[in-house]
Amino acid sequence: MLEDLLESMDLPIGSSRTGQTIARLVFGAIGTFLALAGLWIGATRGFGESGFAFRIAGIVVFAALGCFCLLTVALQRCGRWPGFALVGSFVGLFVVRLVFGG
Fold first, then answer.
1. What is the reported pLDDT for 101?
2. Which of 1, 13, 20, 62 fits 39 for a cystine, CB–CB 3.0-4.6 Å?
3. Closest among 5, 26, 32 to 86, alpha carbons compared
4. DSSP annotation string for 18-40
């Protein structure tokens, strides 16, 4: 899938192994920094008029997203826990929304 994306962009790095590694590091870094920004906003300002439980659930979602982007995408680790943590955090976010309102 990454090869097709790189070939369609007609970049000089092409579909080489080095090009795939560079693209993986760039997209992983972008995702990690966006997750850190969301984590920072959630920890300092909150998410609008949300309650404490929804705020904590949102922080957990962004922390799991950061782990997923850094470990799975950028560093190409094959552990399953970042993906499970991301899915579990989304489930927890929806449960908190249903139970506490939000």
1. 76
2. 62
3. 32
4. HHHHHHHHHHHHHHHHHHHHHHH
